[in-house]
Write a structure and sequence with these properties.
Helix content: over 70%
Structural class: mainly alpha
Oligomer: single chain
Largest sheet: none
Shape: globular
Distance between the termini: 46 Å
Number of strands: 0
Length: 366
């Protein structure tokens, strides 16, 4: 006897809402375990072609995995070393920057006092009060920073271990996933795996090329303007810029501050702002559409929403993960008949004029 329980719409909505909230809560609580695992899965997919290439040269798979992971770690450490070398130059001239900042602050106080007829003593009193509050909050900030640093160290240690294990047990994991579905669905499942792998590899490769191009453009522009620490600022801005839609805005602030402190005229911060706007225009209209966004095929509205959701759930690490995870979700939805329309909604293909006319004929649109 086949009994089908039909629930009213409000009951279905309530159950779905409770389920979504439960999943979000588990993702938030378990982020210390889930985040490293997700990053490891993405990097394992990225390194898998290198492992297969080395295996094809006749080496043992275990040795190939070790070589691939070690190469990736070496590249990351080398980049960090180069950046830290530039940062050391920044720290050596910190006293001069502090003096320049104090002089600029004094000029700003004088300008505000003359412009708005506010006593200098009142401005200095307000600054001193804020300094005291900052010092009082410093202890909590340091404690929070140490807590975050501890979490980062754990993630840094866990990710390489996860990558090695995922690459080693890849066949076992894929075989297990296949056994969860009937044989008739294996072709669709293989398509999902292939497309997801292709999207992640293309997206991360495109992101790497974008970062290199932006770092070069930033550094050249700052060197032409004569801004101190041009290379480190250019590389740092390129790294921050890979945060979708928000990183580009944040990346402009630091070189403008350095230009304001190290230069005698306010024209340099304005020039830095204009040059970075030009670079952002090139990035948003030429580099991202042709090198990065074309790989994930997600429309801009969905990208902005998922980036904000990722930031709310997991902070900056969640912002990095939001787009590739959404791209994989779109692949799954595209291959699921019942939810194909959701995949189309997330995509970047806009209905043509002919389709709109058909809608009008059917009186779906007015």
């Amino acid at each position: 006897m086949n009994l089908t329980l039909k629930l009213p719409l409000y009951a279905k909505f309530s159950l779905i809402s409770i389920g979504v909230l439960a999943v979000i809560f588990m993702l938030f609580v378990g982020q210390a375990i889930i985040l490293p695992l997700l990053y490891a899965i993405i990097f394992a997919i990225l390194l898998n072609p290198m492992v297969n290439f080395i295996v094809g040269k006749g080496l043992n798979r275990n040795v190939s995995i070790f070589i691939a992971v070690f190469t990736a770690i070496f590249i990351v450490v080398l980049l960090l070393y180069l950046i830290s070398g530039q940062l050391s130059l920044f720290s050596e001239t910190y006293p001069q920057l502090k003096v320049k900042f104090n002089d600029s602050l004094l000029q700003l106080i004088n300008w505000i006092s003359e412009r708005f007829s506010i006593k200098k003593t009142a401005i200095n009193k307000w600054i001193n009060q804020n300094q005291i509050e900052a010092i009082n909050n410093l202890g909590g900030t340091i404690g929070h920073t140490l807590f975050l640093l501890n979490g980062v160290l754990i993630i840094v240690v866990l990710i390489p271990v996860y990558i090695v294990l995922l690459l080693y047990y890849k066949v076992l994991i894929l075989d297990f996933i296949h056994k969860l579905f009937v044989v008739e669905h294996h072709i669709t499942l293989n398509d999902i795996f292939f497309n997801s792998k292709k999207i992640i590899q293309g997206y991360l490769t495109g992101l790497l090329f974008e970062m290199i191009i932006i770092a070069i453009l930033n550094s050249i522009a700052l060197l032409i303007l004569g801004i101190d620490y041009a290379i480190v600022l250019g590389i740092t801005g390129a790294i921050i810029n890979i945060i979708p839609y928000i990183g580009g805005v944040i990346a402009i602030a630091l070189p403008m501050i350095i230009a304001f402190i190290t230069k005698d005229t306010a024209i340099y911060p304005i020039l830095v702002f204009l040059v970075y706007l030009l670079i952002q225009f090139v990035d948003n209209h030429f580099i991202i559409p042709h090198i990065v966004a074309s790989k994930v095929k997600i429309n801009g509205l969905v990208c902005v929403i998922v980036v904000l959701l990722g930031a709310a759930l997991w902070g900056i690490p969640g912002m990095f993960l939001s787009i590739p995870i959404t791209a994989i979700l779109k692949v799954v939805l595209d291959h699921t008949i019942a939810y194909k329309h959701w995949g189309a909604l997330m995509g970047n293909i806009v209905p043509t004029t002919k389709t709109k006319l058909n809608f009008k004929k059917k009186k779906i649109l007015t």
